[in-house]
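Exam review. A common question shows you a sequence with its structure tokens and asks you to describe the fold in words. Practice with the pair below. Do the first one on your own.
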Amino acid sequence: MKKPKPSLIFSGLLLTFILLLSPLSHAHPVAFQNSVGIMGYHAPFMSHNQLNYSWRYWFATGVHHIRRHSVKNANATLGSLNFLLKRWNGSGLQANLYGVIGGGHSEISGDPKTIGMAALQFDIEDRDYYFLAKHQQLFNDKFTELEQTVVRAGVTPYIDPFDGFHTWIILEWQDFAFNRESNQSDITPYLRFFYRNILFEIGQSFTGVTRFNYITHF
């Protein structure tokens, strides 16, 4: 895989600081009622940006744009219905199970096609530890265009007030495949920086792939 251009990393940093001008952020497809969530995942092989509006604490609608960078015009635009399927509240922690279904238009396979989307996500977090597992697929009537599995765990080196500046250390394992190509897997250590409603992550995998993610809710 090719390493990302410095301009790509700079663009992500700039976008994060712009978002600072826009109160708790998580990578949740459903947030608090009447909130807007903006999320982005960027790597040399793919980017996935989404905009979600939470109508209720358990239901949101979303718009997604997914792009495969190594192939010209290989992108997909979709709408989704996002559901909080189950929530567990403990002493100082919260766990969530989410489901996402949707559909739209894709040229990731090289030909224009109508596609479906399905995703399942589980996460659990307290003020010290964090864990997330997610699987998503994009599929047409003949085959799967994108399959992606992410498992990540994190720890914070210090505890700050809720409205303070938070830092996390996260280790992520990811496995993905486009169309009917071979699966690719790697492990990426991340640094996560979190202030009020802004979350930004940057990491580099053991194979040299640089990634950055951003999230905000308002």
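Now try the second one, then compare your answer with the model answer below.
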Amino acid sequence: MKKYAIALSLIGLAILAAACGSKTTDTGKVIKSAPTGNNLTVALATVDGVLRHGNTEFTLTFTDSSGKPVDVGAVALTFHMPQMGSMAAMNDAATFTTTDTPGVYRGKANIEMAAEWQAQITYDGPTGRGQASFAVTAQ
């Protein structure tokens, strides 16, 4: 009976340790990254490494030159498509929440159509102001 109680206690401690252990944020597979100035890099990632049109979720991760995530404060991202012919320009803004890891932000956007977009990223916070822009294809 004692062996059963000890085994049960050890299992409980293992579960508790796992639940209370260090929290890391899974950022997924990087789709694209770019320098932002201030010696930082920003990476756009999704769970499967594919940006999809419609309602989509992704992460933005800001890192320093050693690859360590860096808190940049307030972030903004707009998926921009310039005017083409009679079609007006499109701007699909993302909303963000912070994660347990400073420098990693969870984003959501409703990307109107499958096509190539310009990801226009800005930030303003402890590291100063910065921006990045790169082409990304939504499928």
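Model answer, second protein: The helical segments are 2-20. The CA atoms of residues 24 and 101 lie 6 Å apart. Full marks require stating both points clearly.
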